[in-house]
Amino acid sequence: MLIVGIGEYSITDNVEETIITHALGSCVAFIVRCPHTRKTALAHIVLPQVSRREQYSYLETKPGYFADVIVPKLLGEFLSGNKCEKNQLQIFLAGGATSKNSKDIFRVGTRNVEMIKHLLKSYGLKPQKIEVGGLVSRTVEINVADGEVEIKSQRMTI
User: What's the CATH code of the domain at 121?
Assistant: First the structure.
């Protein structure tokens, strides 16, 4: 089992593996899979974009932290060298929960999802499956062999 932490990502074609990430509140699990090669990636995205110069330090230790960095990186990994045809890609999004605070002006979960969809659209892609929003925390795992995605959710307590 490959465990993906906050701001991390994992990519593999080992059919013996399952990739999992835990505690997705406003964060989003971005999954890309090529059924032909079984290559599968999961990123635990925290923020929609790098907005301040100081945040660039995150990119060394947390390459999956920002949607505007990791989405193009992973799509490039799958599409470069014709490893997988664009129309074959399976894309799944989960997370992006809404804050329980009704005065939340930051709307991080919503902005994460919007940014990922915007980036996908720029590639002429869209997710096949989406489970986002709500007041739930999610754990997401994908089986590399068959692409089966399992989501466990629970109501947020904070």
Answer: 3.30.1330.200
Whether 35 contacts 7, CB under 8 Å? no
Q: What is the pLDDT of residue 112?
A: 96
Q: How many domains does the chain have?
A: 1
Containing structural domain, residue 24: 2-155
0.85 exceeded by the pTM? Answer: yes
User: What are 17's two structure tokens?
Assistant: 């593996």
Note the pLDDT of residue 82.
Answer: 64
Q: Check residue 56 and report its DSSP letter.
A: G
Residue 38, by phi and psi: left (phi above 0), alpha (psi -120 to 50) or beta?
left
For 68, the token pair is 């505007």
**47 DSSP 8-state letter:** B
